[in-house]
Design brief:
Blueprint lengths: L2 H22 L22 E5 L5 E6 L5 E3 L3 E2 L2 H13 L1 E5 L2 H14 L1 E7 L2 E11 L6 E5 L6 E4 L15 H4 L3 E3 L6 E7 L8 E4 H7 L1 E4 L4 E3 L2 H8 L5 E2 L2 E3 L6 H8 L5 E7 L4 E10 L17 E10 L5 E5 H4 L6 H4 L5
Antiparallel strand pairs: 1-2, 1-6, 2-3, 3-4, 5-9, 6-7, 7-8, 8-9, 10-15, 11-12, 11-17, 12-13, 13-14, 16-20, 17-18, 18-19, 19-20
């Protein structure tokens, strides 16, 4: 082997090693700024639209009162919106992906990616595609729209991936707040007990203010206890559901079957403004998480005494509420009657 051949082989060897180190070493620096995917000032964000290839989509919008709504009218869970906004602000490029993972990431983003558009008023600030977790589960595949290079994105100090924060289920975004009506804003309350009609009643602000009466289930007037009425009226502020059951918990058939049952109680609340809310409470069977499973005689209960299923008038899903939280609302007519001396 002559001298020139040896030199040529040496050069090729050095170039090969150099290419390998550049392409494979995990500590190579990213070509983009670490904060390229983030939103510097999330206080200006007014709208976030997310969608995937399966047709699932969700729209989050902020109104002038700084309240967030999902899909054009349903109040959103504030804590979940704050988490999404903080994620958009804090996330950084963890590392560029090695060449052998490029096609895998692109495939994942193309098939399962969540297209996320972030707006300030009508101005589109950024569009990113959010994929699944990286193999080490410390980062999340993401791609900026219009670019070819995906990256591993993370939030410094957080161990895990970010995809669960970009969910597309409206029910999961929905606020758990059911009632938040001040006493002075209540015009009417109608509470019916289908299995015990004698306990049903109707409160009318106009009738109560003029005569101090409440109506029983027959529409007959009875003198009401001032303190009990006051307690009832003040019970419609800051009342929350424990949570909602989505389609993964109840099928449409199971949900429809529940709603066809006779409810334990129905509530109609009318505000002075004219806005009305309707709720139906259903018994909830004993479950694995039920704490109070036996009655005073040691007999196992069939109905959970601590919780109810609830159907809201503006949602075709099932909510769960704690009996303790709604105890002062679920009063019966006898409780409201003035006590005789």
């Amino acid at each position: 082997m002559n001298k020139n051949t040896k030199i040529l082989l040496l050069i090729l060897f050095v170039l090969s090693i150099g290419f390998y180190l550049v392409s494979k070493k995990p500590w190579r620096t990213a070509s983009k700024d670490a904060k390229a995917f983030s939103i510097e000032d999330t206080s200006i964000v007014t709208k976030i639209f997310m969608a995937n290839k399966l047709g699932q989509k969700v729209l989050l919008e902020r109104n002038a009162q700084n309240q967030w709504f999902v899909n054009g009218g349903v109040l959103a869970e504030e804590s979940k919106v704050k988490l999404l906004l903080s994620t958009l602000h804090d996330m950084e490029i963890q590392k560029p992906l090695p060449p052998n993972m490029h096609n895998t990431a692109i495939g994942i983003l193309a098939v399962r990616g969540i297209k996320t558009e972030i707006y300030a008023q009508d101005k589109l600030l950024k569009t990113i595609y959010v994929g699944s977790e990286t193999p080490d589960q410390t980062g999340t595949f993401m791609l900026i729209e219009g670019e070819d290079e995906p990256y591993s994105i993370h939030v410094p100090g957080f161990i895990g991936y970010l995809t669960p924060r970009f969910f597309l289920s409206e029910i999961k975004w929905r606020s758990k707040l059911i009632f938040d009506v001040p006493a002075e804003s209540i015009a009417e309350i109608q509470i019916d007990y289908p299995g015990n009609s004698a306990s049903s009643f109707t409160f009318s602000k106009e009738l109560y203010k003029s005569k101090g009466f409440v109506l029983n289930q027959k529409g007959e007037e009875f003198l009401a206890d001032t303190q009990e009425v006051k307690m009832l009226l003040h019970s419609f502020e800051q009342k929350f559901a424990e949570g909602y059951y989505d389609d993964s918990t109840f099928t449409n058939h199971e949900r429809d079957s529940l709603f066809q049952l006779t409810p334990y109680c129905t509530i109609r609340l009318k505000q002075v403004s004219g806005k009305e809310q309707h709720l139906a409470f259903y018994y909830k069977p004993i479950g694995n998480n039920t704490k109070e499973r036996y009655d005073d005689n040691g007999i196992e209960l069939s109905i959970d005494p601590e919780k109810f299923y609830v159907k809201l008038d503006n949602i075709e899903q099932i909510a769960s509420v704690q009996e303790y939280a709604f105890r002062r609302i679920l009063v019966q007519a006898n409780r409201l009657k003035a006590k005789r001396n």
